[in-house]
Design brief:
With 371 residues, the protein is an alpha/beta fold. The chain has helices at 22-33, 77-94, 105-116, 134-142, 151-159, 204-216, 233-242, 258-267, 282-289, 320-332, 334-337, 339-353, 359-369, and strands at 2-14, 17-21, 37-45, 57-60, 67-72, 97-102, 120-125, 145-148, 165-166, 190-195, 222-227, 249-253, 270-273, 294-297, 313-315. The protein folds into two domains: 2-168 and 355-369, Rossmann fold (3-Layer(aba) Sandwich); 175-352, Rossmann fold (3-Layer(aba) Sandwich). Helix 1 crosses helix 13 (359-369), helix 3 (105-116) crosses helix 4 and helix 6 crosses helix 10.
Length: 371
């Protein structure tokens, strides 16, 4: 079977290779290992043109036996989109099934092409922007299969008249990594962890302002460890310097090596994600797996799994004062507040218990049932 896999992010052109997120690459590899010919269709960019492009792109697909259709995106974006339409039409004609990481305008266009050419197609919904537009709802009803990253997204798609299933997340860690007996004790200094792209939409500037407010109140028994990189790194460091907060922040850059990333979670006392928009971020799965107490906003599909006061504490988007207040409360009574982490451990155990198949295997079962 020939499968066209369309990722709605970009490949990174680096060291004469093409790099993507490791678990996405493994997903494509699993599809191919099960006697399929995989066409990886994706835009590509040089990391220098957008610092966010290189974030967690550590899997070189150019040295695998994929049919890669890479549309180079440069300054003149319109030309890249024109080529995408042309190349997309050509590729869809060659394949038996089209699987689209969704949402995104390009993926919507390719789904419409698939429909026009009489090809079966499916979606992996992992983002919230535009995923319930009129055209999206129409395409869902025509799709062979729809997988999502959150029970909330699954329910919304079902309400639109289509069928959807929440699947196992594309993350590196699994059941065997779950820490079930972690200890939570008071400390002289606590370690707050943020993992993600360093950009304003992740709530990083609210996090800095929250730290400034804590310092004003002479609460200084913590450090914030930032894992990631992005377009707003320089601006972030300038604001930290301006408010003389450098002693509170430790920057680690992008960390993709499995053991090193696991150590960041294991050493953290609180995980904070004040993000403005999401699908369901993989970092929340990772924080639950390693038993880190979580504070997060409830944007996108997050509320489908996370419950305020049960397995996390809810933050309001763009509310630095609220974040500061909740951090202060947490730091002053850490042992009692950490009960949410134990509940989160149970959440991730239950969440993964009925999702034993790898996402690629689950997709292939559905495709073959329609063959």
């Amino acid at each position: 079977m020939k499968i066209m896999a369309v990722n709605n992010t970009v490949m990174v052109e680096r060291d004469k290779g093409l790099f993507i997120y490791k678990e996405t690459g493994k997903f494509f590899f699993d599809l191919q290992q099960n006697s399929n010919q995989v066409y990886v269709f994706q835009m590509s960019m040089k990391p220098a043109s957008n610092k966010n492009v290189g974030f967690v792109a550590d899997y070189d697909i150019s040295n695998k036996d994929f049919n890669i259709v890479a549309i180079k995106r440069r300054k003149f974006r319109l030309w890249a989109y024109i080529k995408t339409v042309f190349k997309g039409f050509q590729t869809i004609r060659k394949v038996d099934f089209v699987y689209l990481f969704y949402p995104g305008h390009v993926c919507s266009a390719l789904a419409l092409m698939s429909l026009f050419l009489g090809k079966r197609f499916g979606f992996y919904i992992r983002g919230e922007q535009g995923f319930m537009s009129k055209i999206s709802k129409y395409l869902y009803r025509k799709a062979t299969v729809i997988f999502t990253v959150s029970p909330k997204f699954t329910d919304i798609v079902k309400q639109a008249g289509a069928n959807a299933v929440t699947i196992r997340p594309l993350i590196e860690f699994a059941e065997e990594d779950i820490i079930r007996n972690r200890e939570y004790s008071s400390k002289g200094k606590y370690r707050i962890l943020f993992v993600g792209r360093i950009e304003s939409n992740k709530g990083i500037f609210e996090l800095v302002e929250a730290v400034r407010l804590l310092k004003e109140k002479e609460i200084i028994n913590f450090e914030v460890h930032m894992v990631g990189d992005g377009v707003d790194m320089q601006s972030l460091k300038e604001i930290i310097e301006k408010h003389t907060l450098s002693d509170f922040f430790v920057f680690h850059g992008t960390v993709t090596e499995r053991t090193a990333l696991a150590d960041h979670y294991k050493n953290a006392d609180i995980f904070v994600l004040p993000t403005h928009r999401e699908g369901f971020p993989r970092v929340l799965y990772e924080a639950m797996i390693f038993g880190v107490p979580i504070m997060t906003t409830f944007v996108g599909g997050i509320s489908g799994i996370m419950k305020d006061g049960v397995n996390c504490y809810r933050l309001e988007p763009k509310d630095a004062a609220g974040l500061s207040s909740k951090l202060m409360n947490f730091l002053s009574d850490y042992e009692k507040k950490s009960v949410i982490a134990r509940n989160a451990t149970q959440t991730i155990v239950e969440y993964l218990s009925d999702k034993k198949d790898k996402p690629a295997i689950q997709l292939l079962k559905v495709i073959k049932s329609f063959s």
